[in-house]
Amino acid sequence: MAAEKDIYKILLAKKLLDSDPQKKELIKELLSSPDFKVKDLFKDLKKADLAQKQIIESILIQIEKKEHLKPLVQYLKGAEAGVKSFALKILSKIKIAPDVQDLVTFLRNPNIPIRSYARKVLIEQGDRDSFDLLQKQIAIGKWPSYREAITVLVHLGRESSAPALAKLMPVVPRYTLKQIIDYLAGFKTGLAMKALESVLTDEDPAIRLKALQALKTSKSPRIVELLLNLLDDSDDEVRKETVMFLSGFKDKRLVPAFIKCLNDRDYNIKITAVKTLGRLGAQASFEPLLLTSTAGDDRLEQAVQEALSKLSHLDDVAVVETIIKIVRTGDENGRKKAIFFLSGQQKESVVKSFMDYLMESEWWVRE
Predict the structure, then answer these.
(1) Do the Cβ atoms of 171 and 198 come closer than 8 Å?
(2) Is the pTM of this model over 0.70?
(3) Which of 147, 201, 261, 348 has the highest CB neighbour number within 10 Å of its CB?
């Protein structure tokens, strides 16, 4: 190492600029020597002053041989903080990168800068081997942080990373789960949508809501079936988001579910249900809409009347039978609503049928 020491001393003594051709030649000569060892420079690092450290850095960032990387990688795996930090600084500046296996291992390192370095290099390389190896490693045990690993996985695999992300969903922290949901929402593939469906029953309403919002882009024929259960969700925001989303569908399965929503404690859910039932125009909606409690709310009352007006295509007999049922067995409020509906009824056949019933019924009903 005598010759190498001499070059090192010359570099220290001359204080050459990095752009100086002589400095570049000296460093090139040093690195090409068969006796050159990275560890020898790191031995000097502990007692080096600032000028010496700068020279050591100038030498190491010119490394081009894989064999010279090994000591640097080892320092990242287990060295004192100062040495580890310096090794990372060098690795971040050189043109060659550690093996994929080492980079994936670094993603599990408790040191945040090391994880960030590995993430950056893996994404820049875009190596398919990295993706395959990461998919295998990512499910092994708990990680200090899943963020870097997930980010790499997504950038390298895109849609094909959905199965690996889905496997992580039950074990990652809440904030990471939200990150995964955001990624899956961007894929819009069957695998991604299936993974999102799995968290619609999560105990955290914020997660259920986020999954629901992500599924809005889904074209799955099962989407209505999947979301119907959320109409009974304990969280107001989840129910509201579900009702608003499902109100855009024309599906007969929505009728009984939205009839139930007429009694929801949330005003927006109730009024959306009223409007949707009017649009769907099902026979089963007539009586529930007619009896919907508006509690003097003009906006809700208007929505109910508009919804009922859209049911004019219903069978006359069925309508009259419903009104008669309410008049005979309903409470005072129900009877008033039924009579009010008749008073504005444009179809003469409906009014005539009801009047015929009155004429044939007992006197107390006429009263």
Answers:
(1) no
(2) no
(3) 261
